[in-house]
Amino acid sequence: MTERRTDGSITVTICTMDRPEILERTLRALEGQSDRDFDVVVVDDSIPPDPGAARRAAAGERFRVVRGDGEGLSRARNQAWQAADSEWVVYLDDDVVPDPRWIEHLRAAMAAHPEADVVSGPVVADAVEGGDDLVVTIVEVERDEVLAGPRVRPWLIGLTVAMAIRREVLERLGGYDERLGPGRFFPSAEDVDVNYRILRSGGVAFVTTAPVARHVQWREPPALGPHFRGYMTGWTGFAMKTLRQGDVRGGLWLWALGVEDLLRMAGSAVRRRSLLRLRVAGYKLVGLAVGTVRGLLAPW
After folding, report:
1. Which of 36, 90, 184, 290 lies at a CB distance of 3.0 to 4.6 Å from 164, suitable for a disulfide?
2. Is 115 a residue whose pLDDT tops 50?
3. Where are the domains of the chain?
4. In angstroms, rounded to a whole number, what is the distance separating the alpha carbons of residues 16 and 219?
5. Which superfamily does 10-215 belong to?
6. pLDDT tens digits for 247-267?
7. 55 vs 252, higher pLDDT
């Protein structure tokens, strides 16, 4: 068995495509970190390549750009960890802005919990002022907590929009399933699939309230329904993958969590008298059906 690497080294990895202004904002936030002892790897699927990222790579030894091959986000995430030479791979989406002490707090949590394979914190969003709206991809962390075991809901240990994973764990598990995620047949759930496999293999996560990141909400309300349909299609596809690969109990449990999420959205629509949430619930219902059928038929 390989001895666990414990040098505390960190590589922040960002996968991006055709969003140079959004990426630049996130890179500026990394430049303003109180702890600057980390490398940065950007996997760029942009066409043409992002010139701003290329200029940064040319100017700094600790900043690298890897040319993506346009095969989806999971492929880019795999290219990111494969390009990293550090104990920890810290994933950050290009539309997520970390607080100035984000790296500092992550590093403190890593040192305090050497048993952890994953470290993550809250991902917040700006409050919606009036109107009928819905935030996308936030992570709520109410207290510092060690999480382990195959029946921990996989999103509770973090989402790849902003979380740290030991590189050796990604290598051992084979990284992200490139059949899942944006740009693929199942357009989401690549991160919860990794989380589930980490937990099933005996991995440990530490979640903490300290390292806060903000997910910028740039999607307009009409785009939210199709977006959440993609989330549900990926989730139920991932559930059927789990079932088809022999973990029948786990697959059915994950699928039931999808149904629970759909019912929660429908109930929220009724309580808030929200037409947007009602439309999103309808899109989620379609995603649940499509993902289930695709997942049952796919050659996993």
Report:
1. 90
2. yes
3. 10-215, 221-297
4. 16
5. Spore Coat Polysaccharide Biosynthesis Protein SpsA; Chain A (3.90.550.10)
6. 999 999 999 999 999 999 999
7. 252
